[in-house]
Amino acid sequence: MGKRIKKLKKIRIHREGTDTLIYSAMALIAIGIILWRSFDSHVPFYVFAVIFGSVWCVVLNFFRCPIRLFGTDDTDNLVVAPADGRVVVIEEVEENKYFHEKRIMVSIFMSLFNVHANWFPVDGKVKMVKHQDGAFHKAWLPKASEENEMTDIIITTPDGVDVLCRQVAGAMARRIKTYAKEGEDCYIDEHLGFIKFGSRVDVFLPLGTEVLVSMKQSTTGNQTVIAKLK
User: Fold this and answer.
1) 227 has which bridge partners?
2) Nearest Cα to 95, choosing from 146, 132, 136?
3) DSSP code of 82?
4) Considering only CA atoms, which of 79, 105, 75, 76 is closest in space to residue 90?
5) Which band of pLDDT confidence, cut at 50, 70 and 90, is reported for residue 213?
6) What is the DSSP string of 160-174?
7) pLDDT of 13-28, one tens digit each?
8) Which position among 38, 54, 199, 218 bears the catalytic label?
9) Are residues 222 and 117 in contact, defined by beta-carbon separation less than 8 angstroms?
10) Would you give the DSSP letter of residue 148?
């Protein structure tokens, strides 16, 4: 593996949200102008501006795209949070889809107020990328990880350990974007993908992995160390 490429620390708007933000802003401005000109009292305009301006700011926050650096090249055996949010699952599960063995599943739920960019949880090589259509149960429910629309990414670490990272759509999320490509090297600090409007990311780790987070703990993508591989 080569040395990870360092990037400047900054915050920008994610490319997945550019069209949404521009077109929604244009629509809000147009409606605002109509309200301003249509009523002698400007109360309807002010009410509209406060309510929908606040909603637009929430969406703007949602589409933030922070460029974060983990802070060190010493990432051997470390598993870093792939998303902002909070831990909703830490348990042993039977993973019969790929590994056919017990795995430790750590799930991070992203609310509407979290950044929804996803990061690679480990350094390695992308072994597999597979998308599956499905339902849109609420993302924090256990069955979401099995029945919802999802994309599975298996990453093989430099030590030969396979780690499954699963992007799961939620009740509102209808679009999963995955940038991981089979056969490519991947690194902590790089974006794995993006999920729109409420979702979760699951990480399946081998038994014996030391989990370093607790239930309901808040995580910061590409910053919080969630586990250490055996």
Assistant:
1) 79, 211
2) 146
3) S
4) 105
5) very high
6) S-EEEEEEEE-SS--
7) 666 667 777 888 888 8
8) 199
9) no
10) B
Single pTM value for the model:
0.75
Mean pLDDT for the chain overall? 84
Tokens of 123: 């350094």
Cβ–Cβ < 8 Å for 63, 14: yes
Alpha carbons 47 and 52: distance in angstroms, whole number: 8
**120: Cβ contacts below 8 Å, ≥ 6 apart:** 82, 155, 165, 180, 186, 187, 188, 189, 190, 191, 192
- CB 162: neighbour CB atoms within 10 A? 17
Residue 199 annotated as catalytic: yes
Query: Which of 153, 176, 175 is CA-nearest to residue 165?
Result: 153
Report the range of poorest mean pLDDT among 55-64, 123-132, 221-230. Answer: 55-64
Query: pLDDT digit string (tens) for 112-131?
Result: 778 888 999 999 999 999 99
Residues 6+ apart with CB under 8 A from 92: 102, 103, 104, 105, 207
Contact in structure between 177 and 191 (CB atoms under 8 Å): no
| 61 vs 3, more confident | 61
Closest residue by Cα to residue 150 from 185, 191, 113, 193: 193
